[in-house]
Design brief:
five-stranded mixed beta sheet; elongated; 5 strands; alpha/beta; 6 helices; single chain
Length: 146
């Protein structure tokens, strides 16, 4: 009786899943999604030579793929949170401040406090076609009180 009950329970739980399997697959299938490819192509085309990108990890992975696997834009230094820790670079502001006098700097931040912090501390140039949190060029450090 125990095995019969177990088998009936397994069947009862699997049937709804099997019935919905094709529709679930269609909803989650991302094989035709080209958003990341399009974003990377546009971002790399807009970045100046020798740029530093202070990036958010999910954007870093797409940029690194283009750089490391496809051999595109080896002149760009993509620095995300893990890179900062591994290289001992400090916080995002330390990275921006260290590079801004010498190289073009771009930022990609997602968390609202970081987006606001960067916008409050630096003059940013919003790049056409990008959400401000997705990619902006750091133009200069803001004057104190300005």
């Amino acid at each position: 009786p125990h095995r019969v009950v177990t088998a009936a329970l397994v069947i009862a739980l699997l049937i709804p899943t099997l019935i919905e399997l094709e529709r679930r697959y269609e909803r989650v299938d991302r094989s035709g999604d080209t958003y990341a490819r399009s974003w990377v192509d546009t971002a790399l085309a807009r970045m100046e030579p020798g740029a530093v990108v202070v990036s958010w990890w999910s954007y870093s992975t797409s940029l690194w793929y283009a750089q490391v696997i496809e051999g595109r834009r080896p002149d760009i230094d993509i620095i995300d949170d893990r890179t900062r820790l591994d290289r001992g670079l400090g916080d995002i502001y330390d990275v921006i401040d260290a590079n801004l006098p010498h190289r073009p700097v771009y930022v990609i931040r997602i968390e609202p406090p970081e987006v606001a912090g960067v916008a409050g501390r630096y003059v940013l140039e919003q790049l056409e076609g990008f959400d401000p949190s997705m990619l902006a060029r750091v133009v200069a450090k803001r004057e104190a009180g300005g």
